[in-house]
Design brief:
The chain is mainly alpha-helical. It has eleven helices and three strands.
Length: 309
């Protein structure tokens, strides 16, 4: 895969979070720990939902898909960063950079769409409880997950193909720990107007659209909970979507915080450090959010460990 330009750029340099050699062991240990926790935590969620028949429901089907996506999402960036620190090399090939960018956008999109699907699931469960099993049938659940993956593939493929048309000059240093779309595009010495236009349009459509769907679902949920007579009934209804609401808040707040912070500070290294929140910290925390106050997951995990002991 060769870029279409005269200089035949074959590689980029990922500058990482810090260029200070004395901090590299600390960064390596910290990110390795967070990566292992992320993989193990999300893998346990997947195994728990598979092993316990009580969790073979739409909500946990979506949750297991989200956990799988979170593992893949983190795996697109952190392992390469750890290898670069360990080998003391900042190099990533041109093909490797485009590939990393494709999969990063793919799994980020899947996360976004799955959170929207899960909000719809909670809306149906609380606002239409008597018709829940009819509406959220296995066929519909499968189509919703397939649609999430298909739209994400098309979205990431569009951005990757748009990046391939760019020409790069001698400036190949990316002030980030992975090939972030905006950072790569702004390294180009050719016109990036079309890339920027597509990026902004896609952001409004594929981030604003799902967010609007989530907000609409929760507005309906709040109105439905308000008409429940007993306090215990209200608590039970709210508790079924509390974990999802926490994950949604964490995901969107960190993403919006990163890009608003980047726009305010104009510092690439500050943006890279802030992006750790949604690329590493959020996927790491999600299993804890879904398991700490979830009796079903706790029971499934006890059964899982009981089977292995």
């Amino acid at each position: 895969m060769e870029p279409g330009n005269d200089t035949q750029i074959s590689e980029f340099l990922l500058l990482g979070l810090s260029e200070k050699p004395e901090l590299q062991p600390l960064v390596f240990g910290l990110f390795l720990s967070m990566y292992l926790i992320t993989v193990c935590g999300n893998l346990l969620i997947i195994l728990a939902t598979i092993s316990d028949s009580h969790l073979h429901t739409p909500m946990y089907f979506f949750l297991s898909n989200l956990s799988f996506s979170e593992i893949c999402f983190t795996s697109t960036t952190v392992p390469k960063m750890l290898v670069n620190i360990q080998t003391q090399s900042k190099v990533i090939t041109y093909a490797g950079c485009i590939t990393q960018m494709f999969f990063f956008l793919l799994f980020a999109g899947v996360d976004d769409f799955l959170l929207t699907v899960m909000a719809y699931d909670r809306y149906v469960a609380i606002c239409h409880p008597l018709h829940y099993t009819v509406i959220m049938n296995p066929w519909l659940c499968g189509k919703l997950v397939l649609a999430s993956w298909t739209l994400s593939v098309l979205h990431s493929l569009l951005h990757s193909l748009m990046a391939l048309r760019l020409s790069f000059c001698t400036q190949v240093e990316i002030p980030h720990f992975f090939c972030e779309l905006n950072q790569v595009v702004h390294l180009a010495c050719s016109d990036t107007f079309l890339n920027d236009l597509v990026t902004y349009f896609a952001a409004v459509l594929l981030v604003g659209g799902p967010l609007a769907g989530i907000l609409y679902s929760y507005c309906k949920i709040v109105f439905s909970i308000r008409v429940i007579a007993s306090a215990q009934g209200k608590y039970k209804a709210f508790s079924t979507c509390a974990s999802h609401l926490s994950v949604v808040s964490l995901f969107y707040c960190t993403v919006l915080g990163v890009y608003l912070n980047a726009g305010a500070t104009h510092s690439s290294h500050s943006s890279a450090a802030a992006s750790v929140m949604y690329t590493v910290v959020t996927p790491m925390l999600n299993p804890f959010i879904y398991s700490l106050r979830n009796k079903d997951i706790k029971r499934a995990l006890k059964i899982l460990f009981g089977q292995k002991s």
